[in-house]
Amino acid sequence: MSTVANVSAAKPRTGGAIYRAPLGTTLPTDASTAIDTTVFKALGYLSEDGLVNTNSPESDTVKAWGGDVVLAYQSEKADTFQFTPIESLNIDVLKAVYGDSNVTGDLSTGITVTANATDQEEAVWVFDMIMRNGVLKRIVIPDGKISEIGDITYADEEVVGYETTLTAMPDASGNTHYEYIKAA
Q1: Which of 40, 55, 84, 178 could form a disulfide with 161 if both were Cys (CB 3.0 to 4.6 A apart)?
Q2: Rg from Cα positions in the chain
Q3: What's the CA gap between 111 and 24, in Å, rounded?
């Protein structure tokens, strides 16, 4: 039976919607427990495009002589998240984009960003949102690594943002991310 109340949209949770912590940090295991902001760093506002999760298997086939498909198998199942942090003056955003060791200082003393080919660090990522009727949803990525940064545009009429693709990798249980949903 169709139920209108089960149809929803997602908005960022007030006070913070995206967090990053060092790999190995204790993971949240529900949708409502407060995030420890001494460990999980808030990355602030995202662009209006929000968060996009691509979690679709890719398949290949084996054909027999004559062209009949005799086997279909899953060849890949990438789990990626795309988002664009737009707080370009947030030190934690810069560290996420360029690497923790490549960003030093603060706004009052001056920030130095070093861009180089150093491999991106893996981290724990959390996305908090509010669904219809105040239902809370939390996505937890135990091991995520930024795999792509899009072009960064500096222009009069555009916000500076970092179009980011995050690849979620399997944890010890083989899971790439967890989703927790709870009525408020």
Answers
A1: 84
A2: 19
A3: 27
